[in-house]
Write a structure and sequence with these properties.
The protein is of the alpha/beta class and 316 residues long. It is built from 13 helices and 8 strands. It has a single domain (41-315), classed as TIM Barrel, CATH 3.20.20.70. The two termini are 33 Å apart. It binds zinc ion (ZN). Keywords: Glycolysis, Lyase, Metal-binding, Zinc.
Length: 316
């Protein structure tokens, strides 16, 4: 929330708590955090929540429309890029879309890679969760920063996600870790991060962002099982690097059986936008182009809701 309380989600909701009552209000907000509830329900129900990486307003609209059409909960995810590009504008649009939706939707930041961007994002108001990705620091520093930033986020009613180990590869808008050493998550390491107070854990068990080597995903389910046995009672497990080119129904269902309750969707949604742009740009009015892009992304999100089995879960 900004200093005058008029520019954040709390401001738009008409909450005008002064500083004296704001810490109690924030503790309440954390307890009733909608993103936490959505993902907890998925873990208990054996399905996963699509967390859709959005780069445009159309993607935000497409995610909400898909969720309402499929009666599925969902998460709108923004990269730090969205904040660097548009300050709070896209974030507050996402938060308002989530507030007004007829199904449960949360707003989450994916891969916040510096303490500065975490604090800036948390202060803007509008995020229900933030992923603290300090994986490019050495482990001691990673843990120290994670602990500090969990406290900062929680004090603002925001839950946190972290990545012990390192998930390699590149996503549009985040630093490429492809040339760094891949570090798989051990149960001991998972424990150390859980002790920092995180809510969601993104294990590295052979998953990578973007393109897999020719042999495809070589996932260490034995390791994932050990991590889950160690910490699964205290955190929810979330999956990065599950591109639909590699993760079809059988492999995804296996991930769900191992407790994955949130799955990031990035490339396929962005590709739908780009495809329509290539086909129709200059041939139809701009308003038509924007609407067609929204429709195309909605179809991709809906397809993912079906195979993550979140379809219909908003009403159950
Ligand atoms: Zn990721």
């Amino acid at each position: 929330m900004t200093a005058n309380g008029t520019n954040g989600v709390n401001g738009t909701n008409g909450h005008t708590n002064g500083t004296s009552s704001s810490s109690a209000a924030m503790a309440d907000k954390l307890k009733n955090n909608r993103a936490r509830r959505i993902v907890d329900d998925a873990a208990a129900g054996g399905y996963a929540i699509p967390a859709v990486c959005c780069y445009t307003l159309e993607a935000i609209i497409a995610t909400v429309r898909a969720a309402e059409a499929k009666r599925s909960p969902a998460l709108i995810q923004l990269f730090p890029w969205a904040i660097e590009y548009a300050d709070g504008l896209m974030l507050h649009a996402a938060a308002e879309a989530a507030d007004l939706a007829s199904v449960p939707i949360g707003v989450h930041m994916d891969h916040a890679q510096s303490p500065e961007i975490v604090r800036r994002a948390a202060d803007l108001g509008g995020f229900d969760g933030i992923m603290l990705d300090m994986s490019h620091y050495d482990k001691e520093e990673n843990l120290r920063l994670t602990r500090e930033l969990v406290e900062y986020c929680n004090a603002r009613g925001i839950l946190t996600e972290a990545e012990p180990g390192r998930i390699n590869g590149a996503e549009d808008g985040i630093t490429d870790t492809g040339d760094m050493e891949e570090i798989l998550t051990t149960p001991e390491e998972a424990e150390q991060f859980v002790a920092c107070g995180i809510d969601w854990l993104a294990p590295a068990f052979g998953n990578v962002h973007g393109v897999y080597p020719p042999a495809g995903p070589q996932l260490r389910f034995d390791l994932l099982d050990k991590v889950r046995n160690a910490v699964g009672d205290r955190v929810r497990l979330v999956l990065h690097g599950a591109h639909e080119d590699y993760f079809q129904e059988e492999l995804l269902r296996k991930c769900l059986r191992y407790g994955m309750a949130k799955l990031n969707i990035n490339g396929p949604v962005a590709a739908a936008w780009t495809k329509v742009q290539g086909e129709l740009s200059g041939k139809v009015p701009l308003t038509t182009l924007v609407e067609k892009q929204t429709d195309a992304m909605q179809a991709v999100v809906e397809y993912h809701m079906d195979y993550l089995m979140s379809t219909g879960k908003a009403d159950s």
